[in-house]
User: Which sequence fits this backbone?
């Protein structure tokens, strides 16, 4: 019964996401089925979590579950009808050479391995105390996180102000399973890995002009040691990898939009950008960086006011969440001091230790192997071969968040700010890993393909 | 092909860097796949594991839920933990996790024993007090041991004198 509930819960997420994906991509004559499947998961999580949050303020219990299910099915049906009206055709492009088949086979094995490892692991501490706890309390409260939880300082250590994408998705599975099942709920996270690896393969291949650099990047992704680490990787229920996948989609589709100018890519970019701050609090910083990158692309290509309007609407979820927290007068832990010039000047002496810690972390083999060195080498190699606007956007997308995250430690409220850096920096870096693999995929493009700058 | 020499160099460099990257990663990635075993695939898989690791309690989640089920809800629960002791802090937070919807007051004790330095605990303010790695004061009466680092003292509804 629990397993059946879990399957139905997951399917409703896919149905809702499929509808949203088709609504966003309906102008395309042919759609890649694998791509639609991955986007369906991401937008499904976004849709279900927002629906549960909004509807949970109005109704509870079985009524809430039925209402959200009806909405999910209705969105799926609406997307399907719009797709039919636009005569969208689904294609499932298969690898075209033995080498490509081999790479795809390895990616499939790796995805299975992540499901396997996830079954063996428990939720990590933050996965339990920062995320799952909200889903559990919402389940016990009939489907919404109780206002008492936000307003009491009893459980301030669980960070009540953290956004609800992951907890509400977990809650959705709890509602279908009929109990807050800590084993079943872990199913969410390997799906994020599967979508992240597949979209990396697709986006990397399109941006590189041929499929195999994308496939190779997806294969190598698995070998970033921190991905399977039990202190913040995919398998322990933290929000950093899901955030990384949304960021990949935002930046990847922005680059496709830059190259091809097709509005459907911009819609996917904007939808992913809007969901970043709903996934994790640091998503606000990624939203800012992704938004600046989007504005640069719009400004450079002189796009219409409609695209600017869509970009301007992306902070709506973030603003609504901030207003909600303000209205509830929420307690939260202050990990950081107020940002001011005075504090910055006071803590200016931290500059060298922060830089040193960042550098040490990026070359820490046990967490990253040679990953960040490979990324830097790929940038330099790609710049030497060809400088283009796409590379500038990627440079901003990878290194601006790292610089902003590192700068935030000037305002760390912890007495031992080096401890704060040590415990949080690896997870922050994980958020840029998928986008950084796009740089590697671009650099993998062989010299003879250098003129093929339009995605296939 | 325009630049066969560059293509060969590109391929060789890519292969070398890729192999080095994978070789460096394998010692960390392989154990993640191989090590560990399937723990109990139960509702409380995670919390049971933590409670066993911290206090050697079997089926600790259900035990805590049963304990909370037996307590009145009109007053908060006190949870005394050892200051700067990660294990007892984890235990305290797990108790808070299961204590919902009761108010929880976490009290940090500087030592493992009842310390003269810490703020006196007013038992009348709580329905029960959990002691994580801390010995309950004798004035509260005998506690109930739930695990190796976990004791719990239910406070009767009758007025309890404030401990000195």
Assistant:
């Amino acid at each position: 019964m629990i397993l059946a509930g879990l399957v139905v819960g997951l399917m409703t997420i896919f149905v809702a996401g499929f509808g949203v994906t088709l609504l966003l991509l309906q102008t395309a004559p042919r759609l890649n089925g694998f791509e639609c499947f991955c986007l369906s998961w991401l937008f499904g999580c976004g849709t279900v979590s927002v629906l549960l949050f909004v509807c949970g303020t109005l109704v509870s219990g079985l009524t809430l579950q039925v209402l959200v299910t009806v909405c999910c099915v209705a969105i799926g049906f609406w997307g399907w009808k719009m797709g039919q009206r636009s005569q969208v055709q689904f294609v499932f492009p298969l690898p075209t050479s033995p080498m490509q088949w081999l790479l795809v086979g390895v990616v499939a094995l790796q995805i299975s391995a992540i499901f396997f490892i996830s079954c063996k692991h428990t939720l990590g501490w933050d996965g339990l105390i920062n995320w799952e706890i909200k889903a559990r309390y919402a389940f016990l409260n009939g489907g919404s996180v109780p206002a008492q939880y936000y307003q009491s300082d009893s459980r301030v250590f669980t960070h009540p102000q953290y956004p609800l994408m992951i907890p509400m998705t977990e809650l959705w599975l709890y509602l279908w399973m009929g109990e807050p099942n800590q084993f079943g709920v872990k199913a969410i996270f390997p799906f994020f890995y599967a979508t992240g690896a597949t979209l990396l393969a697709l986006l990397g291949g399109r941006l590189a002009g041929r499929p195999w650099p994308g496939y190779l990047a997806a294969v190598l992704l698995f070998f970033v040691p921190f991905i399977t680490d039990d202190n913040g990787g995919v398998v322990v229920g933290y929000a950093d990898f899901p955030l990384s996948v949304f960021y990949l989609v935002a930046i990847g589709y922005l680059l496709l939009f830059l190259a091809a100018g097709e509005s459907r890519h911009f819609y996917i970019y904007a939808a992913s950008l809007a969901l970043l701050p709903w996934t994790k609090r640091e998503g606000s910083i990624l939203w800012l960086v992704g938004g600046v990158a989007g504005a640069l692309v719009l400004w450079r290509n002189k796009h219409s006011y409609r695209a600017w309007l869509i970009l301007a609407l992306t902070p709506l979820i973030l603003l609504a969440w901030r207003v909600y927290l303000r209205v509830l007068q929420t307690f939260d832990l202050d990990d950081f001091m107020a940002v001011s010039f005075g504090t910055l000047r006071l803590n200016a002496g931290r500059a060298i230790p922060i830089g040193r810690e960042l550098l040490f972390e990026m070359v820490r083999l046990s967490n990253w192997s040679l990953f960040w060195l490979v990324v830097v080498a790929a940038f330099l190699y790609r710049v030497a071969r060809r400088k283009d606007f796409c590379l500038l956007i990627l440079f901003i997308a990878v290194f601006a968040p790292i610089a902003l995250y590192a700068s935030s430690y000037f305002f760390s409220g912890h007495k031992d700010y080096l401890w704060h850096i040590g415990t949080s920096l690896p997870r922050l870096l994980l958020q840029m890993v998928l986008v950084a693999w796009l740089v590697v995929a671009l650099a993998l493009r062989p010299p003879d393909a250098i003129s093929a700058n339009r995605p296939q | 092909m325009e630049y066969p020499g560059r293509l060969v160099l590109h391929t060789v460099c890519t292969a070398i860097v890729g192999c080095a990257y994978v070789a460096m990663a394998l010692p960390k990635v392989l154990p993640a796949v191989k090590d560990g075993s399937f723990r109990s695939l139960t509702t409380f898989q995670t919390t049971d594991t933590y409670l066993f690791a911290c206090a050697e309690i079997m089926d600790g989640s259900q035990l805590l839920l049963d304990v909370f089920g037996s307590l009145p809800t009109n007053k908060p629960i006190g949870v005394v933990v050892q200051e700067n002791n990660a294990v007892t802090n984890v235990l305290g937070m797990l108790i808070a996790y299961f204590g919902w919807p009761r108010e929880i007051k976490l009290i940090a004790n500087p030592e493992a024993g009842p310390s003269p330095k810490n703020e006196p605990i007013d038992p009348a303010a709580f329905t029960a007090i959990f002691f994580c790695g801390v010995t309950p004061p004798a004035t509260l009466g005998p506690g109930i041991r739930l695990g190796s680092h976990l004791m719990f003292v239910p406070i009767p509804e009758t007025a309890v004198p404030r401990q000195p």
